[in-house]
Amino acid sequence: MGAAPSWLTPQVRRVLAEWPLLLGFAVIAVPALATLAAGTWSTEAGSDGPIILATGAWLIWRAWPGLVAHGSPGRGWVTAAILTPALVAYAIGRAYDFETAAMMGVWGAGVAILQSRFGGASLRANGFPFLYLAFLIPPPAIVLLAVTAPLKIFVSVAATSILALAGLPVVSHGVAIDVGSYQLLVEEACSGMNSILGLLAVGLFYIHLMHGSSVRRSVILTAALIPIAIVANIARIMILILLTYFAGNDAAQGFLHGFAGMVVFTVALGLVFAFDQLVSRLERMRGAPQ
To answer: What is residue 171's predicted lDDT score, i.e. its pLDDT?
Structure first.
């Protein structure tokens, strides 16, 4: 017999050995992800979804040796208790085009399958990738509307108040902003909620790689992400107001609109990393354990 292909490493062989589980999961996951890609992921609000999927898959790949080494078949009733409601949620989501329910079902089915193969103890010991992938579940529209409504008003009032102090002719009427002869509307993408979720996912990914599963550091960073995301979106609205006033509405709502979002998100990530470094330095000064 010839030698095994170079790409068939022990890690790959361990994964391929679970092909029945992978195939069964793919049957439900692929259609749901395709719907998500054509829907939420095609909008600015869900643009971080593919990144979360790719990094989450890499985290599972990274955790796979630990799952295999310490895992043992889980109890059947536990698997059934997780899988049954997951499949019900998936069926409802697919039947009624409800992305949240469908992805909850996919996520739950994935956890149930892995629990059946490796057991609850192994999943808890290597559980971060599965918690991280829960960010793929889009929040229900009714929840987003309830949360983003006050955020939209807050960030628009804050942005216009700062620019008005600088002498710009800008006034906020709730989510409507008058600047010169133009009027802008603050959309859900600018409210801060989507940035909070995106930053939370990326921030937890970063903290897991840099500090392991430190609960204390995760809590500190999570608490910092919310004000950072809101401040970043206030800055974004200020940039769009300035672009509208000085370059016109077409420039602000075209390419520069998305570009402003990318710049602000990058700056927000930089603030997250800088804050984490500051916390690390303060802990070293105090002699706290990392």
So the answer is: 87
In the three-class reduction of DSSP (H, G, I as helix; E, B as strand; rest coil), residue 7 is classed as coil
Count CB neighbours of 16 within 10 A: 10
Q: What is the pLDDT of residue 8?
A: 60
In angstroms, the CA 196 to CA 230 distance is: 8
Mean pLDDT in order along the chain per 10 residues (290 residues): 55 67 87 90 76 90 80 85 94 92 94 86 83 89 75 85 89 82 67 65 80 73 81 83 79 60 75 85 69
pLDDT at position 234, please?
Answer: 84
> Which of 177, 185, 193 has the alpha carbon at shortest distance from 44?
193
Measure the CA–CA gap between 24 and 100, rounded to whole angstroms: 21
Following DSSP, what letter does each residue of 8-68 receive, concatenated? --HHHHHHHTTHHHHHHHHHHHHHHHHHHHHTGGGSGGGTTHHHHHHHHHHHHHHHHHHHH
Supply the DSSP symbol for 136. G
State the burial class of residue 50 (Cβ atoms within 10 Å of its Cβ: 0-12, 13-18, 19+): middle
- For 153, the token pair is 């008003």
Q: Residue 176's beta-bridge partner residues?
A: 173, 185
Quote the strand ranges of the chain, DSSP E. Answer: 170-173, 176-179, 182-185
Overall residue count recorded for the chain in this entry: 290
Contact 178, 171 (CB under 8 A): yes
251: left (phi over 0), alpha (psi -120 to 50) or beta: alpha
Distance from C-alpha of 90 to C-alpha of 92, rounded to nearest angstrom: 5
Distance between CA atoms of residues 261 and 233, nearest Å: 8
Do the strands 170-173 and 176-179 form a parallel or antiparallel pair, or are they unpaired? Answer: antiparallel
